[in-house]
Amino acid sequence: MAEHSGTGPGRTIPARATLGSVAARAGVSKQTVSNVINSPHMVREDTAAKVLAAIDELGYRPHRAAQQLRTRRSRVFALRVQNRFPDAVFDRFLHALTGAAGALDYRIMLYTADDDAGEITAYDELLDRWDIDGFVLTGTHPGDTRTAHLSRVGVPCVTFGRPWDDSGHHPWVDVDGAAGTRAATEHLVRQGHRRIGFLGWPDGSGVGGDRLSGWANAIRDAGLDLLPPSRAVNDAEQGRSAAAELIDRTHPTAIVCASDVLALGAISEITARGMNVGADVAVIGFDDTDISAVAGLSSLAQPLVDVAAHCARLLATLVENPSDSRPEQVLLEPQLVIRSSSAPVRR
Amino acid sequence: MAEHSGTGPGRTIPARATLGSVAARAGVSKQTVSNVINSPHMVREDTAAKVLAAIDELGYRPHRAAQQLRTRRSRVFALRVQNRFPDAVFDRFLHALTGAAGALDYRIMLYTADDDAGEITAYDELLDRWDIDGFVLTGTHPGDTRTAHLSRVGVPCVTFGRPWDDSGHHPWVDVDGAAGTRAATEHLVRQGHRRIGFLGWPDGSGVGGDRLSGWANAIRDAGLDLLPPSRAVNDAEQGRSAAAELIDRTHPTAIVCASDVLALGAISEITARGMNVGADVAVIGFDDTDISAVAGLSSLAQPLVDVAAHCARLLATLVENPSDSRPEQVLLEPQLVIRSSSAPVRR
DNA sequence: CTGTTAGCGCCTTCAT
DNA sequence: ATGAAGGCGCTAACAG
């Protein structure tokens, strides 16, 4: 633990470099060093060079806590972790977000909450004690009060997910589920399918309605029969029952599903009936999770790296330009990944 | 943004409470307030009561950056996010860890790195600028240099995963993979199986060898034939080929797998041969991921909540008692979750 | 363009 | 048991 900066034997472990030590080394004042870092335009070139050299030699890095104490900015974004993120894409998003934020020199701090109310309580502590600069919110849903609360206290936030009721004006990034199911449906039409069903979630989830609508509109545009969809909660067993019901009722040759889990339920049912997935009944899932790779399931991949990059960028912009124009909103298209479950219709 | 603490109309929004404002309110000095919080034993009861009342009325919370600037402690643990955590249990671990750390008043901050070298570079910045109190490391592997580095700089760390070569003495928490595959094997033996194969990963992963050994020892203890195992990288297609090879070569009635993904590959192969999973060939996976729930796959659930709680506890202990006795090491048993893929042997 | 002064909120040291 | 002074490292405001 002992540090020494002298010229004793062995390697010299530099004591912590501070603004002051850099200033002394460069023969200028602390303020000038600070200016070189924070307002480089207002310092003469030769002075800057001297200072930068000193910074380099000493391996100086500004101390966050000191900066934060002075500026009330932490360069930290907070993100809630849930035990089960909708669509099981959380870990990939998290990785991308940490990277994207890091590229802008922000860090991600995590918190947990049991529900929206608990989350709002958490904000207070996070803001009061940690000076969190902004929040990345996921899992937006109808009746969501979180963004309204944050906007009331004047704290920047961005949501991964559209606001499903027009609660205020904050920037958001989302994946266009409708475009995804439309692409899936059009792909199936091109494969020769004419009876294309939809296996979705119960009403009221926003995301579910979005994904359903893309299928429905594509069916209408193609002039096909709009087979009444079947619905189940996001569980393979429930999905299997719902698929059974859908098949009995509408005899589809292809099924577009709201999620990979539901799709796997459909696959189980199709297989159990002695039919061939792909050849007899095509299936397309959503989210391109491990499940789809493993099951040969065609699916829609969310562009999570881009989502994360936009989230970080929008939030950083908001933090750094508090009175920026109107909030930007980004809608990205998922990409159809074709596997064996969506073969051409059997002739 | 404007705050006022007067008694004007409307709700009073308290300006930020500080040690000073609490002291004024309670009619004591700042130092006494600090003592009430940090050294309650050395302050008279009535004084403490007064101060606590003031803290409560003002909603005072110590400001982390100020504490940190003074104490060089951040109350933050850092954790690396990888895009693919081994065994796809990362998000559940993360949630549990955030909660467990929060209960001890620590927060989790994330960082990324491309490899071990990049991670070690990241340490420097994290320590220098953020005063990170400790690191939770995952994905330990043979030849891991990270813990040695941290121990050299004297920074507390705990690993989720054993050190696979005896690199130093740090606390760790791990799940006993051998106990898991042993439990799976013994369960199959009780079901009447006599030819129980193993589908594992290629050599050299530590975790893979651990899981294999539990199966092998259980087989020996039961006096059964030790069918030479088959191996594949953690991919369903590879797993399927390896399962085919295993079945052709050893004709097992049950297969213990190193992961759910491999198990799903085995299931595909069994199904494709027109055999029944469970009745003809039983299969047991590892990790109890979404895949197993969806596929009716018996599997071994890792006690991630306990793992996380121990990680947080060990790290906090290390931070708060720098010269504690020898590092504690915790090995937890996974729990066998029985589903339809491990039915009794067909008579 | 550069230097000086002051203070963010807290805790450590010393005095009372 | 309580209070006063000082400083952690940095930057805002002003002076030169």
Automatic annotation (TrEMBL), chains A, B:
Keywords: DNA-binding, Transcription, Transcription regulation. Residues 17-71 form the HTH lacI-type domain. InterPro entries: HTH_LacI, LacI/GalR-like_sensor, Lambda_DNA-bd_dom_sf, Peripla_BP_I. The keyword Transmembrane does not apply. The keyword DNA-binding applies. Coiled coil: none annotated. GO terms for molecular function: DNA-binding transcription factor activity; transcription cis-regulatory region binding. This is DNA-binding transcriptional regulator, LacI/PurR family.
